[in-house]
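Lab notebook: predicted structure, single chain.

Context: the supervisor wants predicted structures on file for every construct in the current expression panel, including those that have not yet been purified. This is the next one on the list. No modifications to the sequence; it matches the entry in the shared construct table.
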Amino acid sequence: MEAKGVTIHKSKFGVKETIDKLQSFLQQHGATIYVRINQQAEANKSGLHLLPLEFILFGNPAAGGLLMIDNPLVALDLPLKVIAWEDDKKDVWLAYNKSGYIKDRYSLPDIPNSPLVLDNIIKMALGI
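Prediction complete. Output recorded below exactly as produced.
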C-alpha cells in the first residue's frame, strides 16, 4: 500500500497500543492531543465492518502557529495526524504525512527542528 507523501511503518504493537504509546510520548513532550478517534468503532456504528483503525490529531500550537503565519493554507494539514490500522493478515501499520511533502505542498521555508518532522518522534515512541 502506498500513497504520495505518506510514510508507512510496520508496528510491533496492536493498533490501540501503538496509538497509546504514541499519545503518551507526545503528552510527555508537551504536545497537545486534540482528538483520538477509533475509526473501527465509528464505522461499526453505521453497520460497516472495518478492521481496527485509530486516528490521532496532535500538535504544538506555538510551532504550528509559526508555519500558519507564513502560509495559512498549511492549516489544512495541521494539526498533525497519525493513523494505525490492522490489515487482514493481522499486521499493524502506522502512517503519517512526510514532512517534505507538507513543506513542498505549501512552499514553506526550511526550519531547523521543524514541527512537521515526525520520523524521530515515531522512532522514540515506538522503537520503529
